[in-house]
Write a sequence for this structure.
C-alpha cells in the first residue's frame, strides 16, 4: 500500500505526516523499510533504541534522522516514544533540494550519499535546539489536524506548512553541522547513549552528573526536563527492560540475568521486576514461553 496516497488526493504532492507511539517494545518487532519514499523521523517525546545498519542508538525528544528508500530500521526498548513520520517521495525531495544553493551541505546533514563519492552514506542522528523544536512540532501538529479534518483549503495549508517545515530543517542544517558539545540536550542524550551501552555498570547520580559535565542538581533537572523522568528511575527501568529481554531470549538462571543487568541483589531485582511487569521474573518467562 502506498502511504503517500492520502485522502487529500493530490497526485503531484507526495507528502504525508503520521504520528506514532511505541511503548514497551523490548524486542525487535517492527523492523521495516519503505521502497518508494523517504521517511524523516522527528522524536517528540519518550525514548527508545533505534536500530540501523547493525548499530543501535538511543533517541529522545528533539532528535531527527532520515531513512532513505529501501533502508531497514527498527525501534526497540521503546518507552512512550512519540514520533512524527514525515513521508515524501524522491521527486518531492529533489525539488526541495534544488531550491538551496548549499544542497551539498544539506545532503551531508541529512546523511544522503554524495554523488561524487562512492562511499556509503553516513547515518547520523541530529538534534534541534529548543526554539526550532517548538516551531517544527507546531507545524507538524497543524499538518496532522488539516489531514484529519480535510476542510476547505486543507491542501494549501498542508503544502504551506510542509515547505516551511522542510525549509526550516534545511536552514538549520547549514547553520549547525553537528550538535554542539556544550548544548545541554546534547550532553544528556550522550549520557543516555552511554547508559544504554553500559547499563550494568555501577552508576550513581553523582557519577552520571560528572560524566555529563553537570552538577548533581543541574544534571537531575536537565535529565528530567529532556528525557521526562528522573535519571535513577530511568536507569532502573532500562535495566529491567534489558532483563526482560534476556528472560525472553535466553535460558540463563534468574540470578544470572539479574547480575548481567546490574542487579547484585536478586531479591531486590525480583521486587522491582514485579513492580514494573506485574509478575515475578520466573512467571514472566513462563508466560512468555506459553504465548
Amino acid at each position: 500500500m502506498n502511504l503517500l496516497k492520502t485522502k487529500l488526493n493530490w497526485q503531484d504532492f507526495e507528502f504525508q505526516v503520521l504520528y506514532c507511539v511505541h511503548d514497551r517494545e523490548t524486542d525487535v518487532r517492527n523492523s521495516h523499510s519503505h521502497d518508494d519514499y523517504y521517511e524523516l523521523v522527528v522524536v517528540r517525546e519518550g525514548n527508545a533504541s533505534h536500530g540501523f545498519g547493525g548499530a543501535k542508538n538511543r533517541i529522545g525528544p528533539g532528535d531527527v534522522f532520515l531513512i532513505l528508500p529501501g533502508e531497514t530500521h527498527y525501534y526497540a526498548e521503546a518507552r512512550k516514544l512519540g514520533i512524527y513520520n514525515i513521508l515524501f517521495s524522491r521527486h518531492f525531495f529533489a525539488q526541495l533540494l534544488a531550491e538551496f544553493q548549499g544542497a551539498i551541505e544539506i545532503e551531508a546533514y541529512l546523511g544522503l550519499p554524495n554523488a561524487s563519492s562512492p562511499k556509503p552514506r553516513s547515518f547520523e542522528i541530529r538534534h534541534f535546539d529548543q526554539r526550532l523544536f517548538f516551531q517544527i512540532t507546531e507545524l507538524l501538529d497543524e499538518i496532522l489536524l488539516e489531514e484529519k479534518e480535510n476542510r476547505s483549503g486543507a491542501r494549501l495549508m498542508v503544502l504551506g506548512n510542509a515547505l516551511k517545515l522542510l525549509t526550516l530543517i534545511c536552514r538549520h542544517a547549514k547553520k549547525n553541522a553537528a550538535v554542539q558539545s556544550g548544548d545541554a540536550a546534547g550532553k544528556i542524550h550522550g549520557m543516555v547513549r552511554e547508559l544504554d551501552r553500559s547499563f550494568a555498570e555501577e552508576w550513581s547520580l553523582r557519577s552520571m552528573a560528572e560524566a555529563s559535565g553537570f552538577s548533581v542538581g543541574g544534571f537531575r533537572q536537565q535529565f528530567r526536563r529532556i528525557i521526562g523522568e528522573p535519571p535513577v528511575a530511568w536507569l532502573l527501568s532500562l535495566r529491567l527492560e534489558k532483563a526482560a529481554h534476556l528472560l525472553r531470549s535466553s535460558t540463563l538462571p534468574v540470578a544470572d540475568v539479574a547480575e548481567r543487568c546490574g542487579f547484585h541483589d536478586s531479591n531486590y531485582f525480583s521486587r522491582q521486576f514485579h513492580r514494573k511487569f506485574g509478575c515475578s521474573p520466573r512467571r514472566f518467562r513462563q508466560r512468555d514461553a506459553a504465548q
Notes: The two ends are 30 Å apart (CA to CA). The beta strands are 15-22, 38-52, 55-59, 63-67, 73-88, 126-127. The CA atoms of residues 210 and 216 lie 8 Å apart.
